Structures are given as structure tokens and as C-alpha cells.
Amino acid sequence: MSIEMTLIEKILAAHSDRERVLPGDIVDIRIDVRLARDFGGANVVKNLQDNMLVPDDPQKTFFTFDCNPTGSDQKYAANQQLCRLYAREHAIPVFDINMGIGTHLAIDQGLAIPGSTLVSTDSHANILGAIGAFGQGMGDRDIAAAWARGSVWFKIPESIKITLLGKRPEGITAKDIVLNLLHRFGADSLLGYAVELEGEVVDNLSLDERITISSMATEMGAIAILMKPSEAILAYCSERSGSTCVAVEADSGASYARKLVFHISEGFQALSMPGKPHHIASVAELTGTKIDSAFIGSCTNGRMEDLRLTAEILRGRKLAPAVMLKIVPATDEIWKQCLDEGLLKVFKDAGALVGNAGCAGCASGQIGQNGPGEKTVSTGNRNFAGKQGKGEVFLASPAVAAASAVAGHICLPDDIPEVPSIFMPGIDQTQKSTTGRMGNAPNGKPMVLEGKVWLVNEDNIDTDMIFHNQHLSVTRIEEMGQFAFGNLKGWEDYPGKSEKGDIIITGRNFGAGSSRQQAVDCFRALNTQAILARSFGAIYERNAINAGFPVLTYDTLDEMDLKQRDTLRMELETGLLTNLRNGKSMQINAFSGIQQEIYQRGDLLKL
Question: What total of structural domains would you count in the chain?
């Protein structure tokens, strides 16, 4: 009997000891490329040293200093130097501060090829779906395990197939396509699924366009957006890797959780409203909104095609008075190509600031932040509150960002006015603004938890709300608790009022966003006992499980009549949850086998 598998199932089966894998299977996956960035690298090193582990294959193991390539923060600089010293000792290649974004380098330097596997401390490592490969952002424990063992455990996700039908409208960029998909599917309807994107439009996408789309799978809650590589993609990867690349394809009889259709002909030029990537509006609706700044770059839109489009709009024009435009190529190779093609002169003549290659505006430390009240049009993939500073960030395509910087207000490229908007004294510029007791397992780890509850009744609480990126250089767990929920409105005082053994109950997609381990460890530092959510961001859930921190999911708690600070009893093995105030009980989703195993060991890295 033939074995019919989806694209991700075929890739992961080929990297396991099984002929076939099915959704829900938990298997060890061999990892071809293992990356650690500058903000996570120091923690990876610390995990390895604390557990007396060393990399099993240094030539598959890399440091990438892309989050803060300038080392402008002393803690970042210290972490980078620590990683350099470790790399020298163990002969690990380093893509240092001059090289650019690690996941892009993995593609462009032929380290990752179609059908391969890659993990990184970068939550957007799933851009590898652009070449039909498996990429996943993971926390520092996962990466340390991959470095030491060459493999990590992974739960095979269900797959969803989305077919793009129709003709792509004029002016609709890849960024518009993915924002339209985000508008259709939101932040969590694809949560935990692997998405296969197909259709004639997809077949004709360039590598740069595919990267733009795949890079925002994380903002949809998806494991990855994977595309079968075209002949052009295979030729590029073959040239860069020096080997003949072939496409891994889903079988015709593969089983999908859902098959969906999106009519690309209905697509519109889109932007994300400040604070929520999935809150999508049309650019036309917001035309005229005065802006202060713009940013073009990031792993989503820092490729050569993005920068050529930017130059096309800026050529012969000047930025609007008092508007700043920052441009950052994704890699040094792209930066040099911009130099060779004369694009840097176009950018500078227009009045833009050009930074060295890296993550830039997405990682606010590299090229600066926006200030309170500042409105920024950004080509990044994420605009959570505080992510790029204290201002408001609209996400849009490079074309819209460049046009808006010239116009002085949000603007379509075809509608740039002869005279730009300017700031006038006495004129309101805020129009259109948005603003317990424990039951023990045989080895002493508690399998029954009791604690007082905090009801945090919000969906899509992202990792910047949980643990702001300005604190990412903190590596000591005992220092992390003070920052928990520090960027979640109304909960900034959580560290001061939390008590040992508390249990947090929250909504859907808790921990969306970054791969930062600190968003888990800050609760461990406060002795918060467990988190119960309708669903978790995929990376966050892995990070919690691997740290031995109890996270569980529920379908509904409506009948429990929960009130703030009720005392709950939670049975991890059976999933029975009881409100001790009124005796009401309900069933939640119990620990999986791998979760219980790691929980009992206390940590993924403990044998």
C-alpha cells in the first residue's frame, strides 16, 4: 500500500527513523542547519555549558548576529563576544554583525535546500517554507539540544491546503497577498497547522516574494507556510549549494484537515493597524493619515526586489519635510548589490538613512526606535505594542512605505501628491489615529497542582506583551520575573501582586510572536505554577514544555463560574480541573506523553 503524505510530513519523515509520520506523532527529527542568534545565542551557550554538552557537528552549527548587529547595547555586545569566544573554542562558523539575517543567509549561501530542516532562535525561521523546506523558530533549550544531539522532538502538525485562484491584480505585492491572507484567517484560525500554498499565482512567485509570504506564517499562528519550489527556485538553490536540488512534493492522496480557496482577484492593497498584525485595513481607507517615519527592511521585505521597488518610487523625489525613512537590506550581499546598481545613491538623495544589513526596525535596537506618539509605516512582519518603540506602527508593503514617506501621509504609490503633507503649528496631527497543595508523582514532581487563579481574559497575548524585547539581553532567570506582563495593558503590576503557586488562565493564542524563552522563564522566576489557555503559540508551547513548565489547554470553562483568585485543583495526568470554591469540575486537555516525560525530568536537557 502506498504511503500518502503532505509536504511537511514527507520532509519530517525523511529526517526521522520512520517511513511514515502522521499528525499527532511525536518523533525525533534530524536537523540539517542549527542557528543561534545574538540575543538567544548566549543562553544556548549557557545551557550547553551548564549541562556539560558540546555541539555534535560544528559544521552544521552557526551563530548569526542579526538582531542587534551594531552591538549598540552593552549586554548585546557582551553576549555577542561570549558567542564568538565559544565559536572559536568549538570551531563553529559565525555570521557576524556585517553579514545580515541568518535565515536569509541559510538560503542564499546554500546551507538550507528544498526538503531540508533548520531550527533557529528566530521565530521567523519558517521562511524556509519559501523553498519547500522545514524551518522552525525554537527556544534556547531546543536549540541547545539540536546543537548537542543533532535532533529535537517534534509533534507532527495537521496540514491545511490553501489554493490561490484567479489573476493577481495590478499593484498587489507579495506583502499585500500575505496581509490579505492574514485578514481572511486572522491570528489563530491556522494555529498549529502547516499550510501548503498552491496555485498558478504561487507557481510564478519569485524567491523574494515567497520569503515575504512565508515569513508571516508566525503572525497567523501557523507552523509554516510551505510552497513547492518552482524550477527557478530549484536552480537558485542548486547554484548556491553546489548540489542538485529536487523538490519534495505532497502526495496526491495526502490527507488535509481542510482544503481552502482564496480568490486573489479580490485582494486589495493592505496594511495592518497599529498593535495587531491581523487587524487589516485597505490603504485607501487610511489615505491621508499623517506619518512621522517609515521603515523598509526586515526578514519580510529586505530583499533585492523590495529595494528596487523602493528605489523606483524614490528616484527623483525627496522625503516629505520632517519625515524620516530608514532602509536596511536583509543581507550584506543585497547591500552590496544596492551599491553596485546605484540604489544607495537614490536612497541617500531622497534623504533616507541606510543601515548595515540585519533585522533593523523589527529589532528596535539596531537602527533605533520610534518615540511616543510617532506614527511609522513599516514593512516588518510584526507591530505589537512596544516592538519598534513607543509609537504606532502600520505594516505595509515597500511600495506603500516609500510612497507614504514621500507624501508625508499614508498613500498609494499612484497617488503621491505634488506637494507633501507637512506638520503645521497648532494643527491636530492625530486624525485617523489608532491607538497550594500538591499531589506527587513517584519521583516527587507534583502531578496535582493547587493554586489561586489569575483570569487574564484576552486573546493573542504576544511575547512582547509578556516579556518586552528591551529586556532580551537578560540571561539570569531570577532577574526575569520583574518584567512579566510588563507590556500588557492593565497587568504591568503582575510581578508585584503574584504569589507563589498562582495559576494563570487566559484566552486563545497565548505567547504568539517571538521565540524568546524569557516569556516562559519570567513566570518560572515568579513561581507561577501553570498557565491554562484555549491555545498557545506553537513556539511558546514548546518552550514551556521543554522548560518543564506546565501549560495546558481547554475547550471551555463556562460552567465553572470562575472568579478572580478562586483556588483551583489541576490534575495534570487526567486533565480534571476543579474550582475548590464551589466544587465545580470540568475536563481540560491532559499532559501528553512527551510533556509528562520532560516535566518529570525538569528540563529537556536533563537526562
Answer: 3
Q: Tell me the C-alpha to C-alpha distance, in Å, between residue 105 and each of 289, 331, 390.
A: 36, 7, 30
Q: Are residues 217 and 329 in the same domain?
A: no
pLDDT for 67: 82
Q: What is the DSSP letter of 331?
A: B
Q: Judge if 56 and 157 occupy the same domain.
A: yes
> Which amino acid does the sequence have at 122?
D
CB 55 within 8 A of CB 146: no
8 Å CB contact between 334 and 357: yes
Q: What residues pair up with 198 in beta bridges, in sequence order?
A: 163
Shared domain for 228 and 84, answered yes or no, is yes
Contacts of 539 (CB under 8 A, 6+ apart): 123, 136, 137, 138, 139, 218, 511, 514, 515
Tell me the percentage of the chain whose pLDDT exceeds 70.
95
Residues 255, 275 within the same domain: no
Identify the burial level of 189 via C-beta atoms within 10 angstroms of its C-beta, where 0-12 means exposed, 13-18 middle and 19 or more buried: middle
Grid coordinates representing 323 are 519625515
Whether residue 81 sits in one domain with residue 172: yes
Q: CA 354 → CA 101, 325, 326, 360, 406, distances in Å?
A: 16, 9, 6, 10, 16
Question: pLDDT per residue over 143-164, tens digit each?
Answer: 999 999 999 999 999 999 999 9
Residues 19/5, Cβ–Cβ less than 8 Å: no
Domain match, 141 and 204 both: yes
Amino acid at residue number 455: L
Q: How far apart are CA 450 and CA 70, in angstroms?
A: 47
Mean pLDDT of 40-68: 93
Q: Which of 199, 257, 268, 249 is nearest to 223 (CA)?
A: 257
Query: Residue 587's domain spans which residues?
Result: 438-601
Q: What is the pLDDT of residues 324-346, one digit of tens each?
A: 999 999 999 999 999 999 999 99
pLDDT interval class at 430 (50, 70, 90): very low
What string of H, E and C letters represents the secondary structure of 229-295? CCHHHHHHHHHHHCCCCCCCCCCCCCCCCEEEEEEHHHCCCEEECCCCCCCEEEHHHHCCCECCEEE
Tell which of 415, 430, 451 closes a domain: 415
Name the domain boundary from 218, 243, 266: 266
Any residues with CB less than 8 A from the CB of 222 and at least 6 apart, and which?
Answer: 126, 190, 191, 192, 193, 194, 195
pLDDT reported for residue 441 = 43
pLDDT, residue 487, reads: 94
The label of the residue with cell 515569513 reads 215
Do 251 and 292 belong to one domain?
no
Task: In whole angstroms, give the CA distance from residue 287 to residue 285.
Answer: 6
Residues 285 and 601: their CA atoms lie apart, in Å, by 54
Same domain assignment for residues 465 and 323:
no
Q: Residue 259 belongs to a domain with what CATH number?
A: 3.30.499.10
Asked if 113 and 212 count as a contact pair (C-beta separation under 8 A), the reply is no
479 Cβ partners below 8 Å, 6+ apart? 525
